[in-house]
Amino acid sequence: MGNRGHREPEKSPSKGKRPNCGERLPAQAKKLLSPGGHFQGSHCSRVGPLFPLAEGGERERRTPYLLLIRHPILKVGHLGQLWPSPAPARGRPGRKPRDGITAGAVGRTRPETPTEKAPLTLFLNSLTPKFYVALTGTSSLISGLIFIFEWWYFHKHGTSFIEQVSVSHLRPLMGGTESSISEPGSPSSNRESETSRQNLSECKVWRNPLNLFRGAEYRRYTWVTGKEPLTYYDMNLSAQDHQTFFTCDTDFLRPSDTVMQKAWRERNPPARIKAAYQALELNNDCATAYVLLAEEEATTIVDAERLFKQALKAGETIYRRSQQCQHQSPQHEAQLRRDTNVLVYIKRRLAMCARKLGRIREAVKIMRDLMKEFPPLTMLNIHENLLESLLELQAYADVQAVLAKYDDISLPKSAAICYTAALLKTRTVSDKFSPETASRRGLNTAEINAVEAIHRAVEFNPHVPKYLLEMKSLILPPEHILKRGDSEAIAYAFFHLQHWKRIEGALNLLQCTWEGTFRMIPYPLEKGHLFYPYPSCTETADRELLPTFHHVSVYPKKELPFFIHFTAGLCSSTAMIALLTHQFPEIMGVFAKAASSSFILIVLLQRKSDRKL
């Protein structure tokens, strides 16, 4: 740049003549112009000084130039300022610039101009198609990996990982709360609390009343198939149950009970069996040691029954001794409760052994005596064992009497109660039932009652019909079940399928009603009415209770989460763009440059509008 004293005075352009873009521009501005006098990448319509000339024909050296830049694709004009140098301008004294803006003020507050974005534009213009292929290919690969992980996580846990992380971690950080809160005394809040309490009780994991023997049944299955029928979660719940039923605070008073308390906490079966033998060496009348050996070491039902009889003899002695001392202290009362639980457990397992060995009437007698002697222990669901034995005897009148006592709204429902009630009503009409005849003449009163009972049972647990109709293969039932879940359906169908097959036409009526319920075949029941609102917490617990080789039945069917659709679409679109860029690099390069230029222009216009506001 030359010295100001040796610079020739510039002449102002003649009036009415359109100036050339290359005239009277500093060297820095001329670098941005092409040899034809046009702005690189755009069209320059007018170039002129922003402020009037100084006295004597000289222009202030720091005066900016105006450029009207037209976008080559969008055909949109943009008015910008071309600053010759970043140094601050000096205002001309004695005269006001136009529009009320002084030269000194403009020099001090230099705005961001489009020409300052030239390096970014040049960088975008210099990108090759290989860069866009690599960019879109990498995006497609990353989104594909996220899609595969989301798909696997959804099928394993039944929910979206991204959605779960967003709700669990991001929402509390953002201060998310419930949108609406009901008043405590409002009817809606009361209904919600009742529904939540009902769902909480139904989503509770219960001890399977018909659970098999580990040594005589579960282990034999492992020997034959090489598969583990019980999950770690299920066995851990059983260990907690054993500690609750068979231990108390006074175990330290008896060395054998102290050893058994450690045995119930052992994870390794051989270690538990070894501890049971150690307890028997300390006390030959340790009932819980015989219970553990009968459950896990006995390989046949006969051996298990023999050990349970020894446990019964020792348990009755300890129980009578505890009854005499129960009022001496609270510790003795806790010891009596423990000894009562041990005695009831032993008698119940003896009844199940008799049932498996074909002595059904003996099993029924033991169960009836238990229910009379210990009526408060309804939580053990001994009546479900009794129902299954009575159905095997085909004593349907006794079954109806038991249902009349336990099919109460105050007691927790179960698949055994609901489907047994449906079976009894089906038995009266199933032998003469025909779908063609029923659709032609309609259903009579008895058939309507049977269909309604099946409808209630299916709504309570919709997983059962697939197992009763043998549409899904059965596996060994777990030691714990979830009410209204797939695990309860397996446990019920495993023992009660033979009772449905014994009654002629029962499965046919079940199939017609079940298809009418869920496939919208007309039947004379009110559509959409739910006797038992179905909870949404069954799938996760069933996946933990049932082994991995079993496909867990899910109801209601869940739709794929949004993020699975989003990642799949993102992966497909980026892969398609990468393929097109690789095949047609020139065309896709033009589109990419046009898109980037348009984006930059939109950002600049938005910034300018924000400054004006």
Brief descriptors of the model:
613 residues, disordered N terminus, 4% strand, 58% helix, ST7, 3-stranded antiparallel sheet, Serine Threonine Protein Phosphatase 5, Tetratricopeptide repeat, mainly alpha
| CATH homologous superfamily descriptor of the domain at 231-388 | Tetratricopeptide repeat domain
- How many strand elements? 5
Which strand order do you get reading across the main beta sheet?
1-2-3
Uncertain runs with pLDDT below 50, 5 residues or more?
1-7, 12-16, 21-25, 28-94, 96-110, 112-117, 176-189, 191-200, 517-532
Do you know the CATH topology of the domain at 231-388?
Serine Threonine Protein Phosphatase 5, Tetratricopeptide repeat
Known CATH architecture of the domain at 231-388: Alpha Horseshoe
**CATH top-level class of the domain at 231-388:** Mainly Alpha
- The radius of gyration over CA amounts to 42 Å
How far do the termini sit from each other? Answer: 38 Å
Shape: extended
What order do the SSEs take from the amino end to the carboxyl end, as H and E? HEEEHHHHHEHHHHHHHHHHHHHHEHHHHH
Structural class: mainly alpha
Q: Helical region count?
A: 25
Overall average residue pLDDT = 75
Strand content: under 5%
Outline the biggest β-sheet: 3 strands, antiparallel
Could you estimate the helical fraction of the residues in percent? 55-70%
InterPro entries: ST7 (IPR007311)
Subcellular location: Membrane
Main location: membrane
Pfam family, one: ST7
